[in-house]
């Protein structure tokens, strides 16, 4: 359709008139729808000049496994195996909320191994590990949450094998060798993130540590899938409960957590809205190539408590950025109850195609024609009319539409 690629900036300003769920409600009503070398020094003592006599010759050692006729597979110097899990102590993938994550393999059957990430957790923290596994099992049917495979245990640690991904989101914004998203657009990346988060919230689970490091990227050679990971701080809310007590523990990661978590004087029991706030920070981070809405790390906590965010990395005269700004401002609201749910975020025009946005305008126009001048929709639109049209709206639309 001619002109679709030039939907005017006017839309971005108009969206400010339809706050909260108003857009979603109107749309519905219109039927628009992933050490050191651990090497050690071998100390050799000097041997005194002694007259040592050789002992009897030993038979050559055999490395054939008894009863099999087969040689065992050679082990790498850093390779450790526990049950069906093998991991490599010199190959750290990261540090989770309650343990170190190593590169490893999961023995699916006698012949097949699956590459996995192995989280090693101290036995003293078994209750935390059991909780994380229970959550992973509950969430296993969603493509945007990492898969769980098995748990093994030895005398010191528990080992949890989960799906291994190519990189975490923060690796996309490093100066040297940034991760290749293989054509995955920022909007689609954020949409997949929210689909995963919506799945958590549907099961009454609050992640409590949403940040770029916990948003993983699964490489399929020709495409990339987003997956939410690390449920070490997650909280399963009891049936019928919408919030949890601050006594439940962990704050999350400084700089990505919500104000009600940082500021105890607010006396607000946190809800799943803490994840929406963190996701809002992630949205800005992705859309601006790694910037944070609350500034430099040493200022972030204070700015979050004070509600002082800066979205200047988004252009004020660019259609896509105007729509994104509207959504991010809602997600970063100081009042948890005013933040949209994960489901509402996914319904925001930020995720609409240009064709759908244009269709929305057409349907709204058709609806307005049928409204009386004192109707609620007309009154809401007119209340911000001056801010949107700025005297002469024809001067503020694209040249293509002016010629049209």
TrEMBL record:
Keyword Kinase: yes
Enzyme class: transferase
SMART domains linked to this entry: S_TKc
GO cellular component: a single term: IRE1-TRAF2-ASK1 complex
UniProt-listed GO biological process terms: intrinsic apoptotic signaling pathway in response to endoplasmic reticulum stress; IRE1-mediated unfolded protein response; mRNA processing
Gene3D superfamilies in UniProt: KEN domain (1.20.1440.180), Phosphorylase Kinase, domain 1 (3.30.200.20), Transferase(Phosphotransferase) domain 1 (1.10.510.10)
Enzyme Commission number(s): 2.7.11.1
Record Pfam families: Pkinase, Ribonuc_2-5A
First and last residue of the signal peptide: none
Residues of the KEN domain: 354-404
Top-rank taxon, per record: Eukaryota
PANTHER family tied to this protein: IRE1-RELATED, NON-SPECIFIC SERINE_THREONINE PROTEIN KINASE
Alphabetic keyword roster: ATP-binding, Kinase, Nucleotide-binding, Serine/threonine-protein kinase, Signal, Transferase
InterPro entries referenced in this protein's UniProt entry, alphabetically: IRE1/2-like (IPR045133), KEN_dom (IPR010513), KEN_sf (IPR038357), Kinase-like_dom_sf (IPR011009), Prot_kinase_dom (IPR000719), Ser/Thr_kinase_AS (IPR008271)
Name under which the protein is recorded: non-specific serine/threonine protein kinase
Record-level Gene Ontology MF annotations: ATP binding; protein serine/threonine kinase activity; RNA endonuclease activity; unfolded protein binding
Domain Protein kinase, residue spans: 87-351
């Amino acid at each position: 359709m001619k002109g679709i690629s030039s939907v005017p900036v006017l839309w971005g300003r108009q969206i400010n008139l339809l706050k909260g769920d108003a857009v979603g409600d109107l749309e519905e009503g219109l039927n628009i729808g992933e050490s050191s070398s651990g090497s050690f020094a071998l100390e050799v003592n000097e041997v005194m000049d002694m007259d040592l006599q050789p002992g009897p010759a030993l038979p050559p050692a055999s490395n054939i496994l008894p009863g099999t006729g087969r040689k065992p597979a050679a082990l790498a110097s850093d390779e450790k195996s526990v049950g069906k899990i093998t991991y490599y102590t010199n190959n750290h993938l990261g540090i989770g909320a309650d343990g170190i994550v190593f590169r490893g393999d999961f023995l699916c059957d006698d012949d097949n191994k699956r590459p996995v990430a192995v989280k090693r957790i101290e036995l003293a923290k078994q209750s935390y590990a059991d909780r994380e596994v229970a959550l992973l099992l509950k969430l296993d049917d969603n493509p945007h949450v990492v898969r769980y495979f098995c748990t093994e245990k030895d005398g010191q640690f528990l080992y949890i094998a989960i799906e291994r991904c190519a990189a975490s989101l923060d690796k996309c914004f490093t100066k040297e060798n940034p991760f290749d998203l293989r054509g995955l657009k920022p909007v689609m990346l954020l949409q997949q993130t929210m689909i995963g988060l919506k799945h958590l919230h549907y099961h009454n689970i609050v992640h409590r540590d949403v940040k770029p490091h916990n948003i993983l990227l699964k490489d399929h050679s020709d495409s990339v899938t987003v997956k939410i990971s690390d449920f070490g701080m997650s909280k399963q809310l009891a049936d019928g409960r919408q919030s949890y007590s601050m006594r439940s523990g962990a704050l999350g990661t400084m700089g990505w957590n919500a104000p009600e978590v940082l500021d105890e004087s607010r006396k607000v029991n946190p809800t799943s809205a803490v994840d929406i706030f963190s996701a809002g920070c992630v949205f800005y981070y992705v859309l601006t190539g790694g910037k944070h809405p609350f500034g430099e790390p040493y200022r972030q906590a204070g700015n979050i408590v004070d509600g002082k965010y800066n979205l200047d990395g988004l252009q004020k005269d660019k259609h896509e950025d105007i729509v994104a700004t509207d959504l991010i401002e809602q997600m970063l609201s100081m009042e948890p109850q005013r933040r949209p749910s994960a489901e509402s975020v996914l319904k925001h025009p930020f995720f609409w195609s240009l064709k759908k946005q244009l269709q929305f305008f057409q349907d709204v126009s058709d609806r307005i024609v049928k409204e009386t001048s004192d109707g609620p929709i007309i009154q809401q639109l007119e209340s911000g009319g001056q801010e949107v049209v700025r005297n002469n709206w024809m001067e503020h639309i694209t040249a293509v539409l002016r010629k049209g």
